[in-house]
Amino acid sequence: MRIDLFELERSQSIWENTVDYNLTESGLHPFTMRELLDAHETEALLDLPLGYGHTEGEPALREAIASLYPGAVADNVLVTTGSSEANMLAVMSLLDSGDEAIIVTPNFMQLPGLAKALGAKVHEVPLRLSGNRWALDLDEVANRITTRTRLISVCNPNNPTGGVLSAEERTGLATLAANHGIALHADEIYRGAELAGAETGTLFATAPMTVVTGGTAKAMALAGLRIGWIVSSQEIIQKAMQRQDYTTIGSNALGQRIALFALQPEKRARIVARNRHLLARNLDQLSQWIAQRSGIFSWVPPQAGAMAFLRYDLPISSDDFCRRLRETQSVFAVAGSWFGMEGHLRLGIGGEPDHFKEALQRLDRFLQDEFGKQAEAAL
Ligand SMILES: Cc1ncc(COP(=O)(O)O)c(C=O)c1O
Predict the structure, then answer these.
(1) Cα 109 to middle of ligand 1, angstroms
(2) Three-state secondary-structure class, residue 235
(3) Same-domain status, 233 and 367
């Protein structure tokens, strides 16, 4: 099978554990088991049989996940190994060779890579800066629909921009999908990691065929559990289950049980509150930092997700920027080109505030060393 190089994931796997400051993470600083679990829960884990368990997900976990999506019940949920498996099963359930998919970009870039590998034709529709937000042009989506279109896919809240679709944009997408009998997929892994305001509205059940993917990695700060999920109609969930029989059979029993503890409403609220606090502090630091370097950087502050997408005005490609920054300062950032957006950088803002502050100091040192006069003039 021919498949595009997944530059973001490959680069992270190679470098993320070798640097002093990893700013490529788009989720929040992970919880430890000690921080997350009480004595009773820890004790219960010691008696958990490490068998296959429920390959589709423990019933109580499927129920807990369903409760995050108004109108969903446990049978609408399939538990997966990370939301990356959820995305893969979604694509495998919805697309065949020769089909067409409309994918809103930039995004995590897993969806376009998988769709193309399956032999589907991908039409990308870009989010565009409009005033102080990343906007989706619904006419552009509509113009891309053909008789072969089987899927419209969005990442909302969006990686890498941190933007959130407006209620009108969500309704517009759902209407287009409904009117043309197309499946609507939304990767909602950053839902629950809003920097302010209400939780992002889900696209689940907004059209006859919706497929929502999510997981514990980002807004829950529990990537290491490797727990994700698909929420969809029972028919699509059955298809996804049949495909999971070929991928991983089922997700891990330990991760499922810990996810169940973490999703209990009180604990989830505590996790979300801690995360919001961290994000607010880092966003504040970054806002001040950017304001003092406005000759180089511009941005639309993120609405959700532990990341900021910065545009820079420097004579260097984003790939070289990130490579040089890593080599000289041991700071690892994401190149905009990995999302097809040259001249941009994505910085993770979900880490510990002191650590983040030090990383920004190193970034300053880099700017000074590499672009001395321009960096000074921008200050
Ligand atoms: C939008 C999006 N979806 C899915 C994933 C993968 O998540 P998981 O770790 O749950 O597989 C990521 C990881 O960065 C992501 O950004």
Answers:
(1) 10
(2) helix
(3) no
16 and 71 housed in the same domain: no
With respect to residue 312, please indicate whether it lies within any of the assigned structural domains: yes
- pTM over the 0.85 mark: yes
Angle, helices 353-378 vs 318-329, to 10°: value is 120
Structural domain containing residue 155: 48-264
Ligand 1, residues 23, 161, 218, 251: which to mutate, most atoms within 8 A of Cβ?
218
Q: How many helices (H) and strands (E) does the chain have?
A: 13, 15
pLDDT, tens digit (0-9, with 9 covering 90-100), for 37-78: 999 999 999 999 999 999 999 999 999 999 999 999 999 999
* Among protein residues, the one whose CA lies closest to atom 15 of ligand 1: 108
Ligand 1: centre distance to CA 73 (Å): 23
Can you say whether the dihedral through the CA atoms of 281, 69, 77, 58 is positive or negative? positive
Q: Are residues 67 and 172 in the same domain?
A: yes
Measured in Å, residue 189 CA sits from the centre of ligand 1 at: 7
Q: Of 264, 296, 323, which marks where a domain is finished? A: 264
Buried/exposed 364-376: b ≥16 CB within 10 Å, e otherwise: bebbeebbeeebe
CA distance 11 to 333: 10
Handedness of CA 51, 56, 57, 58 (dihedral sign): negative
Tokens of 246: 């070929």
Take atom 6 of ligand 1 and give the residue whose Cα is closest. Answer: 84
Name every protein residue with a CB atom under 6 angstroms from any ligand 1 atom. Answer: 26, 82-84, 108, 155, 159, 187, 189, 215, 217, 223, 228
Ligand 1 geometric centre to CA of 43 (Å)? 30
CA distances from 119 to 106, 123, 219, 243 (A): 21, 13, 32, 17
Q: Are residues 200 and 301 in the same domain?
A: no
In a domain? residue 35? no
How many domains would you assign to the chain? 2
Structure tokens belonging to residue 126: 């870009």
Domain match, 313 and 292 both: yes
Question: 366 and 249 in one domain?
Answer: no
Q: What is the CATH number of the domain that holds 228?
A: 3.40.640.10
pLDDT at 379: 67
Q: Examine residue 327 and state whether it is found in any structural domain, yes or no.
A: yes
Q: For the domain that residue 336 is a member of, what is the CATH number?
A: 3.90.1150.10
Mean pLDDT (the chain) is 96
Q: Round to whole Å and give the CA distance between 259 and 268.
A: 10
> Quick check: is 306 in a domain?
yes
